[in-house]
Structures are given as C-alpha cells and as structure tokens.
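Sequence in, structure out.
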Amino acid sequence: MPEQTDHTSAPAAPQADQRSGRHAHDDAGAATRDIADVAAVEVITTAAVHLMSAAAVKCGLAEDLPGSPAAEHLDLDEARKLITALAALVTASAPDLGNQHARSLRDGLRSLQLAFREASPFPDAPGEGPGEKFTGPVS
C-alpha cells in the first residue's frame, strides 16, 4: 500500500546536502536560473498543455487502464474550470504565441469544449459552455 503524505504540515526547513554542504535554497536559485532561460512562449504552451491534459482526463477521455476505467475520472465540474482557464490563457496569449502555436492550442481547446458538451448529461446552451465567454459559441 503506498505511503500517504500529510500535505497539511509546514514545509521543512532547508536541509544541508551531505556531499556539498549546500542548502535547498541553493537548488531554488538553480531552478530560477533554469526558468530564466525558457522563452515565455514555451512556458505558456507548457501551461496550456497541462490544462488540456487535466481537462481531458476530467472529461473522461483518459485511456482505460486495468482497474481504472476512464469514466472513474469523469468530473465535469473540474473539467469546466480547467477548460475555462485554458480558454482564457489561449485567448489572452494568442497574439504573442504566433499563428502556429495559437492554432494548435485553439484546436485542442475546441476539441475539449466539444468533448465536454458530449459528456454532459445536460449540455449548456450555445455560448454558455466552458470557456465560451472567451472563445464564443462552439459547435
């Protein structure tokens, strides 16, 4: 049985690295330098892909695995939030992403909006679905 982690406790104090004597905050500095080298378009695209993946799972589009059918992960309330956040991100960042990146993100977003509508037992009216206040009605 996997060990459960208590997420309510305070974060641990920086620990000294036995080999180098460095502290965890030195690692944070290295991570910050790494992030500084990443272009904004890549950060935005990565965030969008994470939102898409999570929304797809919550729409029941995940692959069925032994002992864990995709329908088990269906959560349309969560999917709505993720799709709306994705729509806002894609719409707001599209001018800065360039046509190639923006087009593929818009296509993925539209597919998720349609999958949400199909998975919903009571589909929203046109223009009222997740993210449609940013994208307009999807059909």
